[in-house]
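Protein of interest.
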Amino acid sequence: MLRVENVRKVFESARGNYVALDGVSLDIVDGEFLCLLGPSGCGKSTLLNILAGFEPATAGVVTANGAPVTGAGRDRVMFFQDAGSALFPWLTAEENVRFGLRVRKVPKAGWSAIVDKYLQMVELDRHRHKFPAELSGGMRQRLQIARALAVEPAVLLMDEPFAALDALTRRRMHSVLLEIWQRTGKTIVFVTHDIAEAIALGDRIGMMSVGPRSVITKVLDIDLPRPRDLGNPQVARLFNEIETLLAPDLARSDELAH
């Protein structure tokens, strides 16, 4: 579905060049749930922006279904941490979902059925006439998901979408997202710095080193049934393994911060 081959990303400024990514390679399989995990400043969001087509790679190749990614595409949709900023505050929930259909020039005759389908899928049908400000944080994220799914993308790119939510709402959103993923078969690339979140969600976890010159240091297969409970000995062992693997980079991140 998505292939990243030896990607390098350099940001230029008056203070000099910053090499954010340096030789990142990764294959993302159709229909999988891949988590990108690492501490702040490791280039996760930069890599996601390159996959979305928002940022060009300085070197290397990124392809989607064999075609070079040269800009934003209809097959890929990006999700942001702050759903309130991503949604249109002057439109109701159903109008927000309908907006994407209008932009994509979906035949108007099919709008009602599509809006109904995805508002029901994210359990917001009863709130269709509310504005984003009248919805909770979790409901706004669900609305962002419904709006994205309505335009039928192949890939969902999610940049720490639940980081601003409280712990209980975040766990609820994990269940909602996994259910939607299993029902739709979409490919999901999910950025997080939370080990437990990555284990709860991912088929695989791509671990990234601290920048500059960040790379993917290891890709772990998570062959565990869902739902995954951190109290499960297998899950706990995996958590400890990942924590140990990340420890040198976390220590380096602390050094860079000071």
Notes: Residues 233-257 form the longest helix (25 residues). The CA atoms of residues 89 and 132 lie 6 Å apart.
